[in-house]
């Protein structure tokens, strides 16, 4: 554009000089004549043309320079001060108003002058609504280049060699959650150290896998909260005591999300190589699960015998279990440079993609030998179906938004959910996601597990999916909050049913078998995402109400416990078990929810697995 302008300008002046050729003598004196004299000899038309070209050049430079600046600081490089710039993939337009952009963002002032008009004049297609240019520093430590989806572009950069440093709680609410962690951890350390679960009432422990489940599941939580001494002691136990030579079956899904995910997350945050070494050792021991009669893995693995089989209770695996191991195995391959783990889970993903579904919705049972769904099984976003949908989105994010197959599967599933499962209650119009019993008959039942969807929909909207997804996520999370608020204890039951009768007076009712509360994280998880995405402090306040209810009804003299009845404040029915996800997820998400620092595990850089363990996003 500029070269064309210069060419036209040269031609214009040549024309001028040609017209004056009779007076031209080629002397140095003549060459040094003032340009002003030339200007005065131009006609009005010639002057207008030159002025227009100059104005056009200035405007072109005004719009082009910021783009050149941005391209110069793209994904491949960093600024001299060490603060890493962020790639704007498919740069067309910065979507957010400049008021919402970080004040330190390059070319923010230039952006102010033209972004508003550009935003109004350009309509982007759904998949072109890509990432804003942002950058971040985490507690004073510069990180490597990250795109809007958080993709890390160079695994050999400082990100993988420098531990994250966390300063601990910075406000009273965070301090209260950190104190709850300490109260939980102190009891676990005293009565269940190195074992799977704390039994806080009997002052003993329970074993499930025999792998120090609570300890490994809690590693990243204590690290993020800044409990350095506890983390050091736990790291020493992993180094010296954690052994996978256990002669018992372990569930592939649970072992992957809790143990493998916990080890990988601890490695990424602390850079202690022992965690990656143990993760690879475990990954190798889990590989026999993929030696089934189809791409669908077996559900159970014997770590000592190196054998795998279908669950003892029946021939089929849960669909969510075989499709919720991908983030962890992909990350293991990326870190070890051994593709076998990623290849194994990608085979599962491609196979499930190829199976027939109901508008993207899947039955909750699948057979590892035949590789086929049990067609008569329930369709739900609750137990046995939930995290299949969660990992479709998160696989897409983890791999730098490069896997169109899982992206499309996610969007198809959400549209199927809207068509077949989404309803409103009576009389207060609460949005909920029901179930299709046997794949056909609608039931207004919703597990608390479904409450993860509020945050997941918000995360999808943040990354280019329709804005409607955020609105749906907010409405659904409001419903989940009501599941707490309407109970006498302020804690949600495990399962609720929604009223559909026009004459009904209450939106939510609970069956006697469903009144228990396991200190699950899903509602807190969604509150965390929605606060990060909207800045609406109502989500923090709701989380604080729920935390106070946990403190009042589940805290014991030593440790915390699940309870049996959320509707009876006089007899909640303590259950003598502290789930590992209480520390791994619920307390972690509460702590992050109450933080005002959005660079504390930033969503541009990390994706959380279904157990709340942050794993890095790759490009």
Written overview of the protein:
The protein is mainly alpha-helical and 619 residues long. Helix content is 46%, strand content 9%. It contains 22 helices and 19 strands. The strands form 8 sheets. The chain has a 3-stranded mixed β-sheet. Helix 1 (2-19) packs antiparallel against helix 4 and helix 19 (467-485) packs across helix 20.
Task: Write a brief caption for the model.
The protein is mainly α and 619 residues long. The protein contains 22 helices and 19 strands.
* Range of helix content: 40-55%
The rounded distance between the terminal residues' Cα atoms is: 33 Å
Uncertain parts: 1-32, 69-160
How would a crystallographer describe the biggest sheet? 3 strands, mixed
- Principal-axis shape: globular
Task: Please count the helical segments.
Answer: 22
Overall mean confidence score, pLDDT: 84
Specify the structural class.
mainly alpha
Beta-strand proportion: 5-15%
Radius of gyration: 29 Å
Number of strands: 19
Question: Strands of the biggest beta sheet: in what spatial order?
Answer: 3-19-18
Write the layout of secondary structure elements.
Elements: H1 2-19, H2 28-31, H3 35-41, H4 44-72, H5 108-121, E1 137-138, E2 141-142, E3 151-152, H6 158-161, H7 172-191, E4 197-199, E5 204-206, H8 213-217, H9 219-224, H10 228-240, E6 249-251, H11 252-270, H12 273-286, E7 300-302, E8 307-309, E9 316-318, H13 319-322, H14 326-336, H15 340-354, E10 365-367, H16 386-398, H17 404-420, E11 422-424, E12 431-433, E13 435-437, E14 441-443, E15 445-447, H18 452-462, H19 467-485, E16 495-498, E17 508-509, H20 522-534, H21 538-554, H22 580-593, E18 606-608, E19 614-618
Parallel strand pairs: 3-19
Antiparallel strand pairs: 1-2, 4-5, 6-7, 7-8, 9-10, 11-12, 13-14, 15-16, 16-17, 18-19
Helix pairs in contact: 1-4, 7-22, 11-12, 11-14, 12-14, 14-15, 16-17, 18-19, 18-20, 19-20, 20-21, 20-22
């Amino acid at each position: 554009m500029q070269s064309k302008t210069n060419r036209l300008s040269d031609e214009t002046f040549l024309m001028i000089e040609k017209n004056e050729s009779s007076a031209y003598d080629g002397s140095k004196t003549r060459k040094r004549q003032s340009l002003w004299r030339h200007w005065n000899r131009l006609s009005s038309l010639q002057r207008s043309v030159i002025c227009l070209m100059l104005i056009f050049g200035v405007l072109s430079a005004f719009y082009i320079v910021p783009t050149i600046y941005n391209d110069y600081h793209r994904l491949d490089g960093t600024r001299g001060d060490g603060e890493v710039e962020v790639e704007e993939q498919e740069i067309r337009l910065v979507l957010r108003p400049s008021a919402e952009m970080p004040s330190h963002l390059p070319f923010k002032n230039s952006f102010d002058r033209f972004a508003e008009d550009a935003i109004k004049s350009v309509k982007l297609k759904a998949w072109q609504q890509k990432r804003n240019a942002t950058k971040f520093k985490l507690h004073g430590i510069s990180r490597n280049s990250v795109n809007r989806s958080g993709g890390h572009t160079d695994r050999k950069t400082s990100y993988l060699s420098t531990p994250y440093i966390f300063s601990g709680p910075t406000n009273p609410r965070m301090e209260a959650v950190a104190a709850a962690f300490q109260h939980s951890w102190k009891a676990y350390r005293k009565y269940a150290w190195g074992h799977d679960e704390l039994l806080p009432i009997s002052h003993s422990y329970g074993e499930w896998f025999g792998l120090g489940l609570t300890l490994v599941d809690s590693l990243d939580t204590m690290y993020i909260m800044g409990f350095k001494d506890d983390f050091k002691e736990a790291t020493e136990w992993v180094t010296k005591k954690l052994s996978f030579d256990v002669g018992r079956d372990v569930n592939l899904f649970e072992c992957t999300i809790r143990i493998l995910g916990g080890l990988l997350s601890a490695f990424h945050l602390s850079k202690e190589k022992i965690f990656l070494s143990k993760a690879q050792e475990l990954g190798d021991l889990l590989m026999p699960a993929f030696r089934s009669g189809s791409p669908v893995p077996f559900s159970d693995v014997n770590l000592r015998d190196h054998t795998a089989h279908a669950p003892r209770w029946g021939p089929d695996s849960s669909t969510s279990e075989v499709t919720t191991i991908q983030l962890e195995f992909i990350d293991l391959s990326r870190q070890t440079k051994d593709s076998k783990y990623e290849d194994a889970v990608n085979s599962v993903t491609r196979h499930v993609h190829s199976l027939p579904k109901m508008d993207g919705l899947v039955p909750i049972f699948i057979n590892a030998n035949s590789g086929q769904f049990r067609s008569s099984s329930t369709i739900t976003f609750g137990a046995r179906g939930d995290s299949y949908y969660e990992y479709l989105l998160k696989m897409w994010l983890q791999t730098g938004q490069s896997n169109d197959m899982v992206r499309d599967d996610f969007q198809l599933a959400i549209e199927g959910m809207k068509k077949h499962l989404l309803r409103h209650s009576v009389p207060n119009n609460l949005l909920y996601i029901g179930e299709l019993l046997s794949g056909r008959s609608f039931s207004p039942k919703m597990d608390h597990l479904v409450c993860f969807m509020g945050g997941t929909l918000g995360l999808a909207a943040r990354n280019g999916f329709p804005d409607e997804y955020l609105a749906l996520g907010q409405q659904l999370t409001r419903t989940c909050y009501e599941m707490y608020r309407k109970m006498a204890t302020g804690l949600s039951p495990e399962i609720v049913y929604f009223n559909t009768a026009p004459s009904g007076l209450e939106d939510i009712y609970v069956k006697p078998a469903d009144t228990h509360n396991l200190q699950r994280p899903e509602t807190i998880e969604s509150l965390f995402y929605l606060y990060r995405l909207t800045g609406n402090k109502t989500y923090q306040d709701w989380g604080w109400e729920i935390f106070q209810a946990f403190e009042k009804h589940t805290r014991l003299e030593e440790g915390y416990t699940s309870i049996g009845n959320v509707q009876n404040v006089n007899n909640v029915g303590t259950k003598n078990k502290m789930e590992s996800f209480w520390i791994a997820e619920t307390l972690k998400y509460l702590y992050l929810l109450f933080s005002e620092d959005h660079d504390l595990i930033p969503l541009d850089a990390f994706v959380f697995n279904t157990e709340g363990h942050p794993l890095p996003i790759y490009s």
